[in-house]
């Protein structure tokens, strides 16, 4: 419910009640072919080819009802329906070769990926009580197609020297991408004469290096450096709108660029238990969500690139074991700074120090230690979320109990996630003269049961573990912000 008032008087003129019903259907299919060769001399070749097709269709009904200030009399109504099918096709091929070289291990490889996405967005005005009677709004409907080709070459070398292990590598990536946006005719067909195109081409180098001092196995030090690229989810590039109500919506950004991260990390391991790391990361064009204004009274949220993000982080973890009791504790703290200037009052300059604590405890009991009780939880202090929101603290706690049976071949487990239903988001954003406060709760309190039974021979060799060549591309089919249908 949104009260609407005239700013000079502050008197509520009417109340907006907006509801969303969004039905999403999706299916996908993928194929993978892998070949591996290895000999006793240390030569190894791995080749992997993959193809995946992801299809989804969103059907959103978004009614807006305006009532008098008391909420008793319906004054007006505006109803929209959005039909948004999307298809993503992924082709990848990857080959890796390794051999012994100069008392170390040398590896080299190549990867090619080709992605094609097709997104159709149709916005309908529903003027009748029957939501199926609708008129296509061609000024707000369009088709967006996106293609991306990434070619990568990389090499890596590692070697154990006296008292230390060294590793260094280099990766070169060439990216060519393009997007085509089309308007739609009144019958929903694509209007090819309205084509608008953008193209992007870039080549990057990503070096990495590490050294581990392991002369004394009880006290090991490590120092590493790396540079990496993170590309946006495909649907975050999709320029279509996802309405929350008549005054607010989410929107993709075709101008969204990849983010580049440079990390330097110092690590220490003491007696294989106490692990400490201190790191500094600098991120260029970091992804963020910004709330902006349009048409004077409306607001929208979209993905954008901030100029920089700097983070200093310290992490300490320790596992503890005493007879049948085990515990794991991890504490991390970081100081982050986000900065960007989009012109005028559209400035981001946020700093925050935050702490994260995670703990897990388990205890075995019973005559044969067949019972195991477990409790775990985490706490996040106030922090900066997505580079633009200042959030309040969050915490949660889970618990469960498990019993082994069938002579150790089976188990039955009962657990409860987020016992106190405490994992809620509360934050605010102040950008371009607009202050927004956001509250969100999730379906986190869950009761779970699991029955496991292992049958067959325990001596059968397990399947060879390997990564699908398209794993990175598949992760990008999941929108990080809820745009589109993924």
The CATH superfamily bears the name TonB-dependent receptor, beta-barrel domain
Count of individual helical segments: 1
Largest sheet: 20 strands, antiparallel
> Taking Cα atoms only, what radius of gyration do you get, to the nearest Å?
27 Å
> What is the percent of helical residues?
under 10%
Q: Give the CATH architecture.
A: Beta Barrel
For the secondary structure, the number of strands is: 28
Describe it.
With 486 residues, the protein is mainly beta. The chain has one domain (2-475): Beta Barrel (Maltoporin, Chain A). It contains 1 helix and 28 strands. The strands form 3 sheets. The chain has a 20-stranded antiparallel β-sheet that branches. A 4-stranded mixed β-sheet has the order 12-13-17-16, with no helix packed on it. Strands 22-23-26-27 form a 4-stranded antiparallel β-sheet, with no helix packed on it. Strand 22 and strand 23 (389-391) form a beta hairpin. The protein is globular. The relative contact order is 0.11.
Report a brief summary of the structure:
The chain is globular and about 80 Å long. The protein is 1% helix and 70% strand. The chain is mainly beta and 486 residues long.
